[in-house]
Design brief:
There is one protein chain. With 309 residues, the chain is of the alpha/beta class. The protein has two domains: 169 residues, Rossmann fold (3-Layer(aba) Sandwich); 121 residues, K homology (KH) domain (GMP Synthetase, Chain A, domain 3, 2-Layer Sandwich). It is 36% helix and 27% strand. The strands form two sheets. Strands 1, 2, 3, 4, 5, 6 and 7 form a seven-stranded mixed beta sheet that branches.
Length: 309
């Protein structure tokens, strides 16, 4: 029987290259929110993949970008800290890249500095021809001695198994750090907060999303009695009561989030509730409010929460 292996793997790349999409595809569960807006991931999210002979703990990091606030700085810090703390790196780039851009160059320099075992993962291969892909592989292979190069389409879940196989080859013998039934170390509150933010990001226009911060004020599980129409007996049903506040930067943003007659906030809440019911496997009673908190992105009391997660 093969020796059991385990280890920590960080996914690093520029904003919007598909890190969260890849993470969810690798895990087979939704652990990171996905939108087409850049800088969606704000913290290092841990996700666990249990295989027959290994446990792989993935860390999805915020995308590398030019920070303009304390929150932005914290995100970059989180991303680069993960480089030195893991066993293997997945460096995710886009197949559509013409050359090594500034953001990818910064990441490459960090990888060289850390001298970590790194797999180059080229995403969105469905958008380019083979000749262009081969040129990109040649270009990056001259920069660093990657342990493997795996072209994939995270969105179409193409070649995902190949990524896991290459990672497993690089892991050392070790124990299972998490229970084999677990797939993330995020708390229910963190998941709820992120799902609500995801729905807001997807439904709102570009000027609002990056100024959003969701805080879960209450999350309690209770039993609700319900009469069974068939048997007439009283059944007990578990239900989560969740109360959340969506903070934004401006009064004008608050109006956009609430929408005419509260319709936008209602849509955000409905989509978030549907997702959370699937993820948590129980009914959800979700209430949401919107408040203005100017400059929260530069408030230490809030930014530090992202560092602690």
């Amino acid at each position: 029987m093969a020796e059991y292996k385990s280890g920590f793997v960080s996914i690093i790349g520029r904003t919007n290259v598909g890190k969260s999409t890849l993470l969810n595809a690798l895990v087979g569960e939704k652990v990171a929110i996905m939108t087409n807006k850049p800088q969606t991931t704000r913290t290092a999210i841990r996700a666990i993949v249990n295989r027959e002979n290994s446990q792989i703990i993935f860390i999805d990091t915020p995308g590398i970008h030019k920070p303009k606030t304390k929150l932005g700085n914290a995100m970059i810090e989180t991303a680069f800290e993960s480089v030195s703390d893991v066993d293997v790196l997945l460096f995710l780039i886009e197949a559509t890249s013409e050359d090594i851009g500034r953001g990818d160059r910064i990441i490459l320099d960090k990888i060289k500095e850390a001298n970590k075992k790194t797999i180059l993962v080229i995403n969105k291969i469905d958008l380019v021809k083979r000749e262009k892909l081969l040129k990109l592989i040649e270009l990056y292979s001259k920069e660093y001695n990657f342990q493997a190069v795996v072209p994939i389409s995270a969105l179409k879940q193409d070649k995902i198994e190949a990524v896991l196989t290459e990672i497993e080859k690089l892991l050392k013998p070790g124990p299972a750090y998490y229970d084999i039934d677990e797939y993330t170390d995020q708390t229910g509150r963190q998941l709820a907060s992120e799902v609500i933010r995801e729905k807001a990001l997807k439904l709102l226009n570009d000027e609002v999303p990056h100024g959003l911060y969701v805080e879960i004020e209450k999350m309690e599980l209770r039993e609700k009695e319900k009469t069974n129409n068939t048997t007439g007996k009283i059944d007990k049903q578990e239900i989560y009561d969740i109360e959340a506040t969506i903070y934004c930067l401006r009064e004008s943003h608050k109006g956009i989030i609430i929408g005419k007659n509260g319709q936008m906030l209602k849509r955000i809440g409905t989509y978030a509730r549907q997702d959370l019911e699937k993820m948590l496997g129980t009914k959800i009673n979700l209430k949401t409010w919107v408040k203005v908190k100017p400059d929260w992105q530069d408030m230490d009391s809030i930014v530090n929460k992202f560092k602690q997660q």
